[in-house]
């Protein structure tokens, strides 16, 4: 508003919504093309998996809850490929953390033969190895990093902190629909924005041109 881009916060909100829609559509195209699959047989990378609870919090436990997401339904399942400094997350809202819910998502997005790091959550134990994954676990009641294998989930746990901070900043977890949009935007940032050698802004301009078919002479 100080730069004269918009005169009111309402206009800025509409602009933000449109830009987020552009990013979500670009991510959807990438998903149709690649499946957003992570991992592989390379020794240089692994996939860390974890679940985290997202729920809108009332300040001092006061205020109405009718328009907010019920706390008991706030699970998000994350799969993050780690290769050097590169991070590629796949974030899925799930109804629960059962094996029946999580395993199909894992098989759809993580390539067979991948090294998969996780904690000892029962949905994973004795389930990934038979499916062709190299499954390493860490017992968080004893260690943050397994002393024998070096397995840990610190990359995705740090990512949860950053993701939740961003979602909370924009109050993006008040409804399921809004949270889903924010998760897709965050994935756009990692999969497309960060991977553009000219930066995220250049990627955003590219996606705007694709979405609205601007012609530049």
The residue fraction in helices comes out at 25-40%
**CATH homologous superfamily title:** Ribonuclease H-like superfamily/Ribonuclease H
Assembly level: single chain
Rg (CA only):
19 Å
Shape: globular
Compute the number of structural domains: 1
Number of strands: 5
CATH C-level name: Alpha Beta
Secondary-structure arrangement, i.e. CATH architecture: 2-Layer Sandwich
Short description:
With 217 residues, the chain is α/β, with parallel strands linked by helices. The protein has five helices and five strands, in the order αβββαββααα.
What does this structure look like?
By secondary structure, the protein is α/β, with parallel strands linked by helices. The protein has a single domain, classed as Ribonuclease H-like superfamily/Ribonuclease H (Nucleotidyltransferase, domain 5), CATH 3.30.420. Helix content is 39%, strand content 15%. A hairpin with a 2-residue loop joins strand 2 (75-83) and strand 3. Helix 1 (9-34) packs across helix 5. It is globular.
What structural keywords apply?
Nucleotidyltransferase, domain 5, globular, single chain
Question: What's the topology here?
Answer:
Blueprint: H1 9-34, E1 46-53, E2 75-83, E3 86-93, H2 99-109, E4 115-118, E5 134-137, H3 154-169, H4 176-193, H5 200-212
Parallel strand pairs: 1-4, 4-5
Antiparallel strand pairs: 1-2, 2-3
Helix pairs in contact: 1-4, 1-5
